[in-house]
Amino acid sequence: MPASLKKKYFSHDSPISIKINAFINKFKKSKKNRFKARKRLPIDYAKILILPVFDNPLVTIIIPAYNGWKMNYACIKSIIDCTQNVAYEVILADDYSTDGTKNITERIKNLVHIRNEKNVGFLGNCNGAAKKAKGDLILFLNNDTEVTDHWLSSLVTLISSDETIGMVGSKLIYPDGRLQEAGGILWSDGSAWNYGNGKDPDASEFNYVKEVDYISGAAIMIRKSIWLKTGGFDERYNPAYCEDSDLAFQVRQMGYKVMYQPLSEVIHYEGYSHGTDTSLTNNPQSIKAYQKINNEKFFNKWKDVLTKEHLPNAQNVFKARDKSLCKKTILVIDHYVPQYDKDAGSKTTFSYLELFISLGLNVKFMGDNFYKHEPYTTELQQMGIEILYGQWYVGNWKNWIKENSSNIDFVLINRPHITEKYIDFIKQNTTASILYYGHDLHFLREEKQYEIEKNEKMLKSSKKWKEIELSIFKKSDIVLTPSLDEKKIITSLDPNLNVETILPFFFKKSAVAIKNFDDRKDILFIGGFSHLPNVDAVTWFYKEVWPLVQMEIPAAKFIIAGSNPPLSITSLQSDTIDVKGFVSEQELAELYRSVKLAIIPLRFGAGVKGKTIEAMYHGLPIVSTSFGIEGMPGNYNDFLQAFDDHAAFASEVVALYTNDTALKNASNLETIYINEYFTQQAAIYKMKDLLKIE
What would be the CATH architecture of the domain defined by 329-501? Predict the structure, then answer.
């Protein structure tokens, strides 16, 4: 966040940053309940309203008004009721009203009331009021609106997240609950669409952050520095209409982006201020009639931009709705929206979705269950990713792919049981390059499990998965694998396969070694228990290794953290074993800061292990079996060995736990290794090369 905004962003008693989770509860409501919530409750217009006062408001909310006393009152009341965590001021720009609006400060305290000496029109009224703005951000809000919870904080969060964002706008909703606009589209002939007009505002296509051609002026926020450089709304559009589109084009011409924020929902009683008649013949005094006149002015001013950078009317809405005409599109498919704090596979999927956004791709995600898992879905949507969820997609995903086939350049499909459902249809109906990532070799994992358990069912299952995976490999343009070892195994099945290694885990920040172990204690295992190798690992450690460890270091506890632990794991809870189950990212970070070492007692599996890499990234020394460190790149033998025998494993745990010098040395060497092999930049270089993008 820029320092100039950060110092003014929050009121004195607010947190340092707004988390996406703060918005989630509102968006969990059912469609029926949300529509009901949009109905206006009875208002007591005799009640005195009191706006909060901030010494240094970050946002100046400007409400242009000509009459409409009750509408003005209701609008400001909604601001007071629904605005939290942002320092703001409200200016009512009174364009020489003749009703009770001229005395509005008798009912609304701390309102900045700017009253024109004569009626100057909507555009002039806005420009005049903006000269009095104290905030670094100016927000123009129609008086025929009512705002909802988090409407302002979500706009501030977005515009503050990136200094190249110059202007942001809200989702506009009709009072009856229908969508009015989820960002605007301008076509090459200068005509405009309110994207999504009349549809369900909760539908997935209207709920991701995106760049847009314009935002209707009913609720737009702009940096004051940019507003001053543009000179405000262009006077050629007096008295109103097209000034908002023109401003968006000016902002973009200056090198800034115009963005749509779906979390900011504003109810708009469209037509209240200026009516709906566009005919000068029928009503020469109608301000609404200037729509047609100003459309021509707008087209003439921006003709070159419109013809070069915009599509013909109603063509390729898929690209037009989020200004992705010059972007390549990647569709990512997985079993569900990645729950990155619950399993390593989800963390990998989430990391690559984030990486694709950083590469400038237009990213779409489809989960096989089409469910809106929260808070994960909203977090991805706030990154700019469209998530295909909801009942419509359950029965129509094939239609969606067919309709948009010409716009899909790449498809990344995860996991064999998901891929076999989609890959044939995608190959038959698109020309997209298909990338397959299995996360690990399922047939190899089950083969190793058979070697431990001698269960004939596992051997039979392994052979079945081998057939499925080989079939998928042959149908894919690129087979992605997390390790050189797996690449060798895959190419041994068919040397003609195009197999590439990618990093399954990578980090934006450098790993930092632990310097002091004095205040640390206990031993940690991390792993989701829907993954059977983790259940076996903990069971083996508890039965075979833990008794030997306890004899030598009885004060140590064994901490087990991970989602969905079965009864066989939760029943291990005791004075010396702490089964925590699922832990949040914050709780996990605290565990990494408090324990002495991590164990990776896997006896079967495949692929590079997320729990191993993550523990090393946090500088936490590890003791592992060969399966816990398999597939890792480079040379790590100087600081990391495998211990598959239970007695040897226990001996290493005790030796490392009781030797601070050894702990510090291991932590230092691990972090050096991670910073060499598992960086985000390395992942970016590799993916750019694979996708052949600059």
Answer: 3-Layer(aba) Sandwich (3.40)
